[in-house]
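To whoever is on call:

I kicked off a structure prediction for a single chain this morning and the downstream step that reads the tokens threw a length-mismatch warning. I double-checked the sequence; it's 151 residues and nothing unusual in it as far as I can see. Pasting both halves so you can look.
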Amino acid sequence: MPNTKIRITKEFRFEAAHALWGYDGACRNIHGHSYILYVTLLGEPETDPDHPKFGMVMDFSVLKKIVYDQIVEPFDHALMVRKGTPHSDLARTSGLVGKLLELEYQPTCENMVSDFATRIARNLPQGIMLHSLRLHETATAYAEWYAEDNA
């Protein structure tokens, strides 16, 4: 079979809360979302018929480990706030928050998907490229990141 580029996608889910300091709408209040992240990779399937991964672009279990380690584990059931804001101070000192992520950015869906792209891309095996991410914050609202837009 000739070498051909193939995209593979895996879906991940996690729950998290956030608050947007300085925002002029309801999202300035602490609230939660059921996030869905779609990770799409680009690569060539293994062509060696004697290789255990013959026909695969990448073993989905390897992708699962990368995304769980880099995103799901740290973000799942966490409160995300921007570091250095009153939200951050309150969350740290109140004793009410068990899992706090103080981020260097405002925890919007757009900033999160950009952060996730960096976290995933730096952990991919050689020859595998992060093609795109889609992060659903709600059933009808999402942000997308594409490698071609960020080259």
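Update from on-call: the warning came from a stale cache, not from the record. Cleared it. Sanity check on the structure: The mean pLDDT is 95.
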